C-alpha cells in the first residue's frame, strides 16, 4: 500500500467537511497545505482573538512502549497533550496537524488503530484534523501533533501573573497517571504486548485509564479565563512540583503548598497501599495528569471553588503564594507520640520529567 492509499485508509471519512468548516478549516487533507479561516465564528469566543499554537511529540520507548499503551491510546494521548496546552492558556482547541513516522513493524492496520484513538480525542474536544505528514521510520514510532486554537485577544492565561497572597489551586487529582504506569510495568508479562487494564487489578484500573486516556481541562480553562481572577495557569504535564516551579520562576515569587490539601484520589491511595509505595512521590513528580495548577486572587478562591462545584468540575485550594526568592515549598505535618503535630516547611526539588536530565 503506497503513502496516499495509507493516508486515505487512516483519515478518509472521519470528519464531515461541513463540521470541519465550522472549526475554521477551509481546505483540509488532500492538498499541499491546509487553508484555515481564523475569523470563523466559534461558540464562546467574541470580539478580536489571537491564535494559540502548541506542538507535542510522542516517541516509542521514550513516552510509551508495547506494554503501556494500545495503539488507539497512543493516538488519543498524542492529541490530548496538545489540547491540554491550549486549555492552560484559556483557549479553545480548533485544528490539528498530525505527523507520523512509521517503522515497518507497524503495519497499516496498526496505524489505523492509532488514528482511531486520535479521532476519538478530536471528536471529544471538537478538533478538526486538517492535515499533516507521513514518513517511514528506521525503528520506532514517532507521533508529532500540532494543535491550533483561539483565545480572546489580550486575555490568554499565562504563568507570569501571580502576585504575593494569591491562592494556589489545582483542577483535579494528581499522581494517577504515574501510578497507572507503575501498575502496567509491574505486570509479569509487561514485555509481551499491551497489558489489559483488568490485569492490573481493581484498584489500578482507574489509574491505568488516567495514564492511557488523560482528560484535558478545556472547560476549566475557559471558566478561569471568563472569571477574570486567575492570575497564572499551567498544565500538569511534567509533575506538580515542576509546574509549580515554572509559575514561581515566571512570576518571581514563592509557591507554598500544603500537603494535607493535595488531592489524593481514592484509587491512588488504595493502589499505593497495596504496592507499599508512598503516593506523595507520584503526586509531586509523576506528571502527565493534565489537570491544571494555577493561582487566583485569594478573595475569589472559595467562590471559584463553588463555581467549579456547580459545573461538576474538581477544584482544590492547595496553598498560597509569598513574596521572596522564586521557589516551591511544601508544608508537611507529622503527628508526634504525644499527639501534637510538628509542622515543617520542606523545599521541593525542581524536578519532574525532564528529557535532558
From TrEMBL:
The pathway that the record names for this protein is: Cofactor biosynthesis; thiamine diphosphate biosynthesis; thiamine diphosphate from thiamine phosphate: step 1/1
GO terms assigned for molecular function: ATP binding; magnesium ion binding; thiamine-phosphate kinase activity
Fetch the SUPFAM superfamilies from UniProt.
Answer: PurM C-terminal domain-like, PurM N-terminal domain-like
> Where, by residue number, does Mg(2+) 5 bind?
238
| The keyword Kinase is annotated on this UniProt entry | yes
Q: Where does ATP bind?
A: 115, 132-133, 159, 237
Q: From its record, what is one biological process in GO terms?
A: thiamine diphosphate biosynthetic process
Keyword Lipoprotein, does the record have it?
no
Q: Where does Mg(2+) 3 bind?
A: 32, 85, 235
> Which residues does substrate bind?
63, 288, 353
The residues covered by the PurM-like N-terminal domain are 30-151
Which reaction is this enzyme known to catalyze? thiamine phosphate + ATP = thiamine diphosphate + ADP
Q: What does this protein do?
A: Catalyzes the ATP-dependent phosphorylation of thiamine-monophosphate (TMP) to form thiamine-pyrophosphate (TPP), the active form of vitamin B1.
What is the protein's name according to its record?
A: Thiamine-monophosphate kinase
Q: Which organism is it from?
A: Paenibacillus protaetiae
